[in-house]
Design a protein that fits this description.
It contains 8 helices and 7 strands; from the N terminus they run αααβαβαββαβααββ. By secondary structure, it is an alpha/beta fold. The protein has 2 domains: 1-37, no CATH class; 38-167 and 204-243, Vaccinia Virus protein VP39 (Rossmann fold, 3-Layer(aba) Sandwich), CATH 3.40.50. A 7-stranded mixed β-sheet has the order 3-2-1-4-5-7-6, with helices on both faces. Strand 4 (126-130), helix 6 (143-153) and strand 5 form a beta-alpha-beta unit. The radius of gyration is 18 Å and the shape is globular. The relative contact order is 0.14.
Length: 246
């Protein structure tokens, strides 16, 4: 599950039995050594797809964790990038990793804000918002409120972007892995408090696009060809590009 320097099985178990916030505070120092960090090839593919949509002045990494999305936004934004997360531990790691790198020579200035994504403290402040790998922490009923908060944080003409993977084929190893993980999490949350919301099968693209439209976005899809194709030739991953028109 991780490199030899990553979290031990005991540390992962303690995290899984904590709240989401406390769990990520505990995991933060070793998070980038786990498979949960967004892989570099995904970051590179998102950057290449996002660059032609810019340039942007300001960017927001929603549920930024240790700042993988911040690294993408720094390549496409000219003035400032902000990472927002509710885990103080994850923000501290991200801030430390970029310590001394802010300033004109290193790209846009970077700020870190601790806040709940369901109550973002911004209003028409950003040209682009990005989120990577965080949507499993929100129940489907919370998704409309999340998208509404991002919408309110963007300036007119702003874009909300995030990658989505094609669902694994029924019966594949990934299919059973995701199904088993979600089942185990549902049992855990039925028997243990505080809950730890993290599911892989609660973000179907059709429902997501409907919720984006309900929040006021106009959404489209861009293929991420660097991440490969399915047997039928369709892309394994796409970038959702949702625009705020006014």
């Amino acid at each position: 599950m991780s490199t030899p320097q990553g979290p031990t099985l005991r540390e992962l178990a303690v995290q899984a039995l904590s709240s989401i916030e406390r769990g990520y505070d505990l995991l933060a120092p070793k998070f980038d050594l786990t498979p949960y960090r967004t892989p570099d090839r995904v970051l590179d593919a998102v950057t290449r797809a996002l660059r032609p949509l810019g340039p942007f002045d300001s960017g927001l990494d929603v549920c930024c964790g240790t700042g993988a999305g911040v690294s993408v936004l720094r390549q496409v934004c000219g003035e400032r990038v902000t990472g927002v997360d509710f885990s103080a531990g994850m923000l501290a790691v991200g801030r430390s990793a970029l310590a001394g790198q802010d300033g004109p020579a290193a790209g846009p200035a970077v700020g870190w804000v601790r806040a709940d994504a369901l109550a973002l403290p911004f209003a028409r402040a950003f040209d682009v918002a990005l989120s990577l790998g965080a949507f499993g922490h929100f129940l489907p009923r919370e998704r409309p409120a999340l998208f509404a908060q991002v919408y309110a944080s963007l300036r007119p003409g702003g874009r909300f972007v995030f990658p989505v993977g094609a669902p694994p084929p029924v019966g594949s190893k990934a299919y059973w892995s995701f199904l088993g993980f979600d089942g185990a999490m549902r049992v855990r949350n039925a028997l243990w408090r505080p809950t730890f919301v993290m599911y892989y099968r609660t973000f179907p693209l059709r429902d997501v696009l409907d919720d984006l439209a309900g929040a006021g976005f106009t959404a489209g899809l861009l293929p991420l060809p660097e991440l490969g194709s399915r047997p039928d030739g369709s892309p394994r991953a796409r970038l959702v590009v949702a625009g705020r028109e006014s």
